[in-house]
Prior knowledge:
With 272 residues, the chain is of the alpha/beta class.
Amino acid sequence: MQFVEANGARIPAIGLGTWELRGRTCARLVEQALKLGYRHIDTAQIYENESEVGEGLRASGVSRDDVFVTTKVWTTHFAPNDLERSTKESLAKLRLAQVDLLLLHWPNPRLPLRETLGALAHVKALGMARHIGVSNFTVALIEEAVAACPEALVCDQVEYHPYLDQTRVRQACADNGMALVAYSPVAKGRIKNDKVLAAIGERYGKTAAQVCLRWLVQQNVAAIPRTSKIERLSENIAIFDFELSGDEMRQISKMGSTKGRLTDFGFAPKWD
């Protein structure tokens, strides 16, 4: 497994995203992923599956110290007291003493960012999170957050795949020593029919999805593909035995535009 290093954190380059995974299915997939060699599991308060993620972690038999666990605080819990209380609730559901990474899930313009980041840093100081970061933050919000936060932020978790150009956000992360963590890295499954990725994959005996994930990892980006299929788990992690050429990397990058976004909500910030 490769790692993405950022402001003191070592984030495994491939993780399991658990959005929309529920109940027994969620626990079983987490357990199976860890047994297959995954060491990075991503959940969130709003996913309502933190208990099952914790269950899968315990059932896997993998040492807690070897797994990088991320959860995310929902926007309604950004007031300082709420943030601390909801983090304690997340830890109780996960049955963990601390998470490896605690993120603000989306920006919330209704609360002062400085106060929320102060609370996030305080939770870290209390030992509830080893590292802290943000998710769905634009370039302007990254700059504001870094300036306002008393502790180092280690990542911005955003949508990123070959169809969405995230050059500006990637650069802002790099400028601040932060990692970019990509959710929806295989464009919600759309890339599996992509002729360009499939043609590149044929040269290496790899699928379009594996080429896509390899493209991300070679940019020093961590990716958290979500799947509900056990066989897909093995495929998504089998990307460390080949390397894309510079030409292939550029060919894939040319597919992206700022209009390629698949996850957007009314409460989303004004994207870069």
